[in-house]
Amino acid sequence: MSSVLLDDKEERSTDQRAAYGRNKKLKKEPSLPKNWPNSTDVDLEAKPSRIISIGEDQTYIFRNNFVKTSKYEVYNFLFKFLLEEFNPKTKIANCYFLLVSCLQCVPQISNTDGIPTTLLPLFCVVMVDAIFAIAEDYGRHKADAEANASQCHRYNSDLKIFENAKWFQLQVGDFVRIDSRDSVPADVIILGVAEKSKIPQGICYVETKSLDGETNLKIRNAVPSTLQSVCKGAESLRNLSGSIQMEHPNKLIDTFNGVMDLKNLDREAVMSNNILLRGCVLRNTDWVIGLVANTGHDTKIMMSATATPSKTSALESTASRYIQKIVGLLFFVCFVGATGLVVWNNVKNVEDKDYLDWDPNPAAEWVIQFFYFFLLHATFIPVSLYVSMTFVRFFQSYFMNIDLEMYYEVTDRPSEARTMTLNEELGQISHVFSDKTGTLTCNIMDFRKMSVNGKSYGLGITEIGKASWKLQGKHIPKAILEGEARAKAASIAHVSFYDESYDADMKAGGLQKERIQQFFRVLALCHDTIPERIEGAIKLSASNPDDEALVCAAKYFGFEFKDRQLKIAIVHNGETGEDEEIEVLTTIGFTSKRKRMSVIVRTKDNRIQMLIKGADTAMIPRL
Predict the structure, then answer these.
(1) Measuring CA to CA, which residue among 442, 406, 440, 404 is closest to residue 423?
(2) How does residue 11 score in pLDDT terms, banded at 50, 70 and 90?
(3) Sign of CA dihedral 240, 262, 182, 247
(4) What are the start-end ranges of the H helices in 27-151?
(5) Residue 24's pLDDT is what?
(6) What is the distance between the alpha carbons of residues 93 and 86, in angstroms, rounded to a whole number?
(7) Mean pLDDT throughout 277-287?
(8) Measured distance CA(594)–CA(251) in Å, rounded
(9) How far is CA 366 from the centre of its chain?
(10) CA angle at residue 413 from 399 to 425, to 5 degrees?
(11) 27-68 pLDDT, tens digit each
(12) Which residues contact 219 (CB under 8 A, 6 or more apart)?
């Protein structure tokens, strides 16, 4: 790993020196206003926007794409670490013991013959903190090195092809190709995408989990003036030239304002839906070709990032407050003791007592006696307290990491105590605020029961149902338990269903069968789920687990949602074995106010229907 880090650093330094030499030779100006992002109105008037050249040399100097999130470097570790360790606001105990160690070296007041006996335990505490700080920051350095050395595809204007490059080598104005399942290396303006149909649409899908925590796919669009030409591939980039006038880098991930002006093409506005932000993952699209707009610490994800804080637990903060009070009490005791001694000796006139080594100057004697008393009572705050706390936290971290009850078998991931100083915070949680279900739970949805045309289908019982029966002191009927066992035996992903009456009604045909088929046809069409092809298999990407479970249920019962092209939804009918193409005229999405989702479709017989699904409180009044 060290050789990789060294090679990346040397390569980066070479690229940076070459870029600096070119900029210095051409005397380019920085692209950002002075003091950005805290620029004054005068500074913004001088450079109101960011100008990027397309297919030509850049007029301004832009930041490189190298990203650093680590806290320390070799040259500044000692200085920054010691400042944190001896910060009187957060670690007053360390400051106290350092003061005691210094005073023990003064012969006139030392009670240890000038030997700083407190320094050794203090050194042990600081060394343990240093080891954990190094280990924690090494993880950040390693993550930075892996991110900066990640591979991407950059367009070579001389060879007219895309070639492999590392993320940190990207520069503003470069053309890049992002393949499916690849992370976006910088803030990129979408010029063209791999099209699935003959008519270019410029639509791609992106996962923004690293930005907003949402796992559902978002739709992004290529700039209209370039989507028809760039979708053909790398050969179309040689003719692109012009400029982009856009906003300066900021941390607002939901907004973007810019104007693209290309020669021989229309002038187009560039909005937030035309941007792929660094850290996003391209999904359900073979590739995207884009133009790098922001790099490195100018990207929106890095602009919104904050400096790595020094973490302190509530227990440590409370201990620091009490230590401050104890130190104040100690100073008061020393003041009273030194003052009483000086007054007593002056009253008693002890200058002729040689063994007292009395200084006739009361002020000097008071200072000496004050600090002598201070050292005598230094054990008011035992240094062993912090030594014990440090070692207890170390062993706590060890046992937490090997605790089998905290091991998650599904992902083969044990517990990991990343910050030792926060161990005790685990037991201090009193309130949990959550915006929705699923944030703190697995939120796994299974289709188990349904009611069609007034008839209920589906046997079995959930774990919550079992707990409810047990709470009421009731015995669960044998038929329900048998139905649950058969449902589990026939279950697939997101579907656990069994009912003999359903099979009987489907065999009998008639009106009930038509109603059931219409029910599942609605489930197969009324959703915003996106089918994603991974190694030949179709994987559903839904905005919520409810939609995914309902679409899986529709497939299980013979209506498989296969794809979405333009405004056509393709559903495979399991009974006929044919793919049905249904035109989706419009979609009205689910909102917390409407509590339902609607789609308007045109059927094969040219009838227009509205298909709705939603919460019972919204649907029952409309039946």
Answers:
(1) 406
(2) low
(3) positive
(4) 41-46, 77-85, 92-104, 119-148
(5) 47
(6) 8
(7) 88
(8) 32
(9) 59
(10) 50
(11) 678 888 888 888 888 888 888 899 999 988 888 999 999 999
(12) 203, 204, 205, 273
pLDDT band at 20 (very low <50, low <70, confident <90, very high): very low
Q: Which two tokens stand for residue 232?
A: 């053909």
pLDDT in tens, 564-602: 877 888 899 988 889 888 999 988 888 888 889 999 999
- The dihedrals phi and psi of 367, each to the nearest 5 degrees, come to -65, -45
H/E segment holding residue 283: strand 281-283
CA angle 129, 375, 371 (to 5 degrees): 120
Contact 507, 514 (CB under 8 A): no
The full DSSP string for 497-551 is: ---HHHHHHHHH-SHHHHHHHHHHHHHHHSS--EEEEETTEEEEE-SSHHHHHHH
User: So which residues are the catalytic ones?
Assistant: 435
Name the token pair of 64: 């490189």
State the CB neighbour count (10 A cutoff) for residue 450.
19
The confidence band for 336, taking pLDDT boundaries of 50, 70 and 90, is very high
The residue with tokens 């008011």 is: 380
Structure token pair of residue 519: 């029910």
Asked if residue 438 has pLDDT above 70, the reply is: no
What is the structure's pLDDT at 21?
47
According to the model, what pLDDT value does residue 15 have?
A: 53
601 burial type by CB count under 10 A (0-12 exposed, 13-18 middle, 19+ buried): buried
Q: Using CA atoms, how far apart are residues 213 and 25, in angstroms rounded to an integer?
A: 44
Q: Provide the greatest CA pair distance for the chain.
A: 123
**Residue linked to tokens 């739970």:** 441
The total number of residues shown for the chain amounts to 623
Q: Which helix (H) or strand (E) holds 4?
A: helix 2-26
Please state, in angstroms and rounded to a whole number, the distance separating the CA atoms of residues 514 and 227.
Answer: 44
Distance CA 42, CA 44 (A): 5
For the segment 378-423, what is each residue's pLDDT rounded down to a tens digit?
A: 888 887 777 788 788 888 888 988 999 888 888 888 888 877 778 8
d(CA 436, CA 418): 27
For residue 426, give both structure tokens.
């685990």
**Helix axis angle, 92-104 relative to 314-348, nearest 10°?**
30
Q: How far apart are CA 331 and CA 243, in angstroms?
A: 69
- What phi and psi values does residue 200 have, to the nearest 5 degrees? -60, 130
**Beta pairing partners, 245:** 51, 259
